[in-house]
Amino acid sequence: MTRHTLETLTFDNRYARLPEVFYAKVNPTPFRAAPFLISANPAAMELIDLDSREAARPEFAGVFGGSLLVPGMEPLAMLYSGHQFGVYVPQLGDGRAILLGEIVNGRGERWDLHLKGAGMTPFSRDGDGRSVLRSAIREYLCCEAMHGLGIPTTRALCLVGSDDKVYRQQVETGATIVRMAPSHVRFGTFEIFYYRKQHEHLQRLADYVIEMHFPDLALAADKYVRFFAAVVERTAKLIAQWQAVGWSHGVLNTDNMSILGLTLDYGPYGFMDDYDPGFICNHSDYNGRYAFNQQPYIGLWNLSCLAQTLLPLAPKEELKAVLDRYQVTVDRYYRDLMRKKLGLREDRGEDEALLQELKSLMVGSRVDYTIFWRELGTFSSDPAAKNERLREHFLNLDRFDAWAGQYRERLRSEDSRDDERQAGMNRVNPKYVLRNYLAQGAIEKAQQKDYAEIDRLLNLLRDPYTDHPGMNSYAAAPPNWGKHLSVSCSS
Ligand code: AMP
Ligand code: MG
Model pTM greater than 0.70? Predict the structure, then answer.
């Protein structure tokens, strides 16, 4: 495999070949104070065949901090609109992100290089086009944490800082992150052309997305319906994965919904600590529209917005029939994931009750979601075993014992072996997730110019299912200060 330098990266900018109404050409605005590299992600560098030694060059921070371009880049801000908190906003677009170009790697995979925090674009509205260090760190780490968990997501190439001041509630400093995905097209990209009644652009967009990302469908007579079905399937799977791991996006507006079913736009997201189905991670979400347990429904709501945009291209009844399959698809994926989390091999209807009772017990005792599932792998099915370690999580011990008795019976009925089951459960119940307080610890150190914690978390979270000796404290429940950190959209 060829290893490229910054100057020899191979670009094939297909989005830039679309009509100019799809975007605005705009260069990054350099910071006044020279950008410096905070962290580079070797796994993502490999995806674009970029030699890992390139990160050590000053030009690396220059290019990915927005002060230099390399040959082949054609920077642009993508146009889109979207429903924000249920209300249609006729124009959004990349207000602080710039698509530098699209790389094709040696395996023929395409990767957008999307520079976030790179300064104003024609779509910045009242914003300054910048990201603060704190929010860039959160996005950088969570992209890679989600990838480590096996959840589809945009990836993160690097994090670059600057001493330039950025004004939010407090004075902070600016940073950029480079985000990578095969495409940054969102549901909102379809919405803008639909609501502007620009149906020829809408069709052009649909054909483009199908050709680039769903090529198997390109020749089908009903390609738009099939394309929608593929998006429904991917979205359902994605959201089921969020539900199983206990993660909330926080701002599931249609402009933050990836057409490829990737987790996109990390803002006030959160992994749950104590299990709370009504968990709201976004401090500005006063009504809980994007609460944890609303996500599967919001997926449907957002997909119905997308379906509407396809009405000029496909028969309504067929789109509706596809949409009607969403709920069962989410449920099917979720049930399958939870069965694996329980360590059950066979899929049986009665397991629903077992899971419901467990979740109800967990809510009642405010059990730590991640720790409990990981520890459930230590369950002993020996009738004499008390499973004290698990019992300790619960207030109502009789009820837990009753549940444990049912679980034991269920395990015995499929001849489950404790050691085998635990090994399997450890592959689906992560030991480490990016809890808010862990990200906060890395942020506070970074604000003092100590960046080691970012790389430490990056390394740990890329492999969250394996025990990392000496890193036990990273698997612990939050200390009191870290329990209810407030995170809002002001990033
Ligand atoms: P988000 O909530 O991050 O998905 O952003 C919603 C919209 O606001 C998008 O169009 C963003 O590009 C834009 N936006 C968010 N923050 C800024 C900022 N600091 N400057 C300019 N535009 C922004
Ligand atoms: Mg967004």
Answer: yes
